[in-house]
Amino acid sequence: MRNIWTIYRKELNSYFVSPIAYILLLMFALIFGFFFWNAVGMFVYYGMESQMRGQMFPMNVNEQVIRPLLSNISVVGLFFIPMITMRVFAEEKRNGTIELLATSPVRDSEVIVGKWLAAVTLYATMLLFSAANFSFLFRYGNPDWKPLAIGYLGLLLQAGALLAIGTFVSTLTRNQIIAGAVTFGICLLLWVLEWVSGYETAAWARVLSYMSVITHYESFGKGVLAIKDALFYVTLIFLGLFLTARSMESLRWRS
Amino acid sequence: MITVKDLTKRYARTTAVDQISFSVEKGQIVGFLGPNGAGKTTTMRMLTCFLPPTSGNASIAGFDVLEQPLEVKKRIGYLPEMPPLYQEMGTSEYLKFVGRLKGLRGAELFARIDYVLERCAIGDVRNKLLGKLSKGYRQRVGLAQAILHNPDVLILDEPTAGLDPKQINETRDLIRSLAGDHTIILSTHILPEVEQTCQQVIIINRGKLVATDSVHNLQNRARGAESVLVEVGSRNGVLDPAAVEKRLQQIPSTARVVAKQSRDNRHTFEVETAAKDGSTRADIARAIVESGWDLNELRPAAVSLEEVFLQLTKAEASVEKLAAKGGQS
Ligand SMILES: Nc1ncnc2c1ncn2[C@@H]1O[C@H](COP(=O)(O)OP(=O)(O)O)[C@@H](O)[C@H]1O
Ligand SMILES: [Mg+2]
User: Fold this and answer.
1) Domain assignment of residue B81, yes or no
2) Are residues B37 and B178 in the same domain?
3) How close A179 gets to chain B, by Cα (Å)?
């Protein structure tokens, strides 16, 4: 436990002493800010429209603002994840500091979990910026907070799974750019897999679309806590971290 | 303290380390000597549990590197070929992190950091970023990192590589001063380094163990028994080196005479003697003076490790050649 904490603190520090954390946070804040005010603007516009026509459409902040925004984040997140994980192990390999970690009395699993938790923390910090925007809605409207909380839980689970995969990819190379690019490719693939369900209903298509991380976000986005979707993400997290551990071990056999 | 038995590491194509065995006593400084590519780094990585051996085993303080890696890791300090520094960390911040990794906490951690800052003379860069340090300082921070948790065994991979002569001397002094408390194994491809720093030497070449002995014995071994250098001259007429050589050979206690060089009517010979009591030197002196020549110099021949090394590795190479020939025919 103490070793995980030691690694975690060091990792988090290294994110925040380099510009990378600030660039990510700033970019995310800008992009999300744009989405948010766009969504709010649309909401207000349709609200006035329906009043002018005299028809009273049921207007719902949760349905019409929060839900689409959450699924936006879940897609935008795919682009940020590679930038968070690309250096995790690649840099340790390039600097030779992997030799320090691997010859200190700590377990590989402690190193991996510490690093992964730090990556998740950075992502959660990013989400905090979006939450700041949502707090605005609570000030002026009266949305339901429960679906929002479940939506955020889903975002964290989804990111946790992708960050675990990114961490694994980062053990495969000493080149950060390669690690980032490959992770990006995998994230993108895991997103678009879902598209096959648009035209095909055969078993293979169902399997492929089941593999898509986005599919499993739908229920969370609706504010429903579906155990099977949560399990999917948790399984992916374990798989990613397990592969990372195997890779660290075989890195020893190879290098 | 360190026991290595038939340790072997094979990569896809090369056998980097081939069945080497040796052991190191507590408190010793051992030089691990070999040319580039000999397998020094690979061996050290196996000792530090960074790489698993293909076969054979190694143990440190009684703990096997494969069976109980955590126990081994607690007891070693390792300075890899490239000091494992985080460029964006400050010196004391880095030492704090390493100390925690090694299991130090609280007051003990801070006391040890102060100690190594002083011991490795890096106190003046304690707040500097590691990425901004000069090569000499980087190497010393690397060393500080290795001794931080006061490990029983220090494993240093080419600790003086890339340093200037002054820094090399400082680093050697530091390493020598660490012996006693720690058992030290350091690798190098520079021969004088072993002569100056180490008590014991392990020579490897192309993955194979060539020799392991104390520095003193190894020098003696190459020299055979005892040998002396004699310089003979003459002030009346040209001196025939063959005549001198013949005269030297007539001395009963000489085993072998080798002509070394001839210049300006002065000839140098190396005389190997069978007698260990030094009586040969007196015999040589008398023989030369009685022949009417001048005895310009008479001193024991100090064999450098360099020669030992060349002799040993040459012998190794010729054996291999023979084996290769045998295999072809
Ligand atoms: N990761 C590796 N993969 C394949 N061969 C390697 C690897 N590391 C070292 N070698 C080979 O093993 C041999 C010994 O290397 P090394 O232990 O680094 O020697 P030294 O440290 O004595 O210079 C060399 O021939 C080298 O090419
Ligand atoms: Mg080396």
Assistant:
1) yes
2) yes
3) 19
For residue B329, the model assigns a pLDDT of 38
Cα of A101 to nearest chain B Cα, Å: 8
Q: What is A160-179 written as a DSSP string? A: HHHHHHHHHHHTT-S-HHHH
- List the single best residue of A1, A3, A99, A251 to mutate versus B (max B Cβ within 10 A): A99
Q: Whose CA is nearest to atom 13 of ligand 1?
A: B16
Report the domain count for chain A: 1
Note whether B69 and B189 are same-domain residues. Answer: yes
The finding on whether B17 has its CB within 6 A of some atom of ligand 1 is no
Locate the chain B residue with the closest alpha carbon to A100: B84
Among A10, A18, A253, beta carbon nearest to B97:
A10
* Segments forming the whole domain that contains residue A44: 2-254
Instruction: Render pLDDT for B178-199 as a digit per residue (tens, 0 to 9).
Output: 887 889 999 988 877 888 888 8
Based on the fold, state whether residues B82 and B229 are members of the same structural domain.
no
Tell me, yes or no, if B82 comes closer than 8 A to chain A by beta carbon: yes
Q: Is A251 on the interface with B (CB under 8 A)?
A: no
**A136-176 residue pLDDT tens:** 777 777 778 888 889 999 999 999 999 999 999 999 988 88
Domain boundary among B183, B214, B245: B214
Cβ atoms of B125 and B138 within 8 Å: the answer is no
Q: Does A1 touch chain B (CB under 8 A)?
A: no
Q: Going along B65-116, which residue ranges are E strands?
A: 76-79
Residues B140, B164 within the same domain:
yes
**Are B163 and B293 found together in one domain?**
no
Same domain, B125 and B203: yes
Global pTM? 0.82
CATH of the domain at B119: 3.40.50.300
Give the mean pLDDT of A180-193: 90
Residues B202 and B245 in one domain: no
Domain that holds residue B195: 2-214
* Alpha helices (H) in chain A, listed in sequence order: 2-17, 19-52, 61, 67-85, 90-95, 97-102, 108-140, 145-170, 176-192, 203-211, 217-221, 227-254
Tokens in use for A170? Answer: 């980062």
Q: What is the mean pLDDT of residues B314-328?
A: 54
A190 pLDDT more than 50: yes
Is B307 within a domain?
Answer: no
Interface contact A22, partner B, CB < 8 A: no
Edge-to-edge strand order for the sheet containing B29-33?
Answer: B76-79, B153-157, B183-188, B29-33, B200-205, B208-214
Pairwise CA distance, residues A180 & A162, whole Å:
12
B257 contacts B228 by C-beta, under 8 angstroms: no
What is the pLDDT at residue B306? 66
Number of structural domains (chain B) is: 2
B38 close to ligand 1 (CB < 6 Angstrom): yes
Mean pLDDT of B273-280: 70
For ligand 1, the distance from its centroid to the CA atom of residue A136, given in whole angstroms, is: 61
Confidence of residue B327 (pLDDT cuts 50, 70, 90): very low
The DSSP H or E segment spanning B174 is: helix B165-178
ipTM of model: 0.87
Tell me which residues have their CB within 5 A of the ion that is ligand 2: B 40-41
Q: Are residues B41 and B134 in the same domain?
A: yes
Q: Any idea which of B31-45, B139-153, B218-232 has the lowest mean pLDDT?
A: B218-232
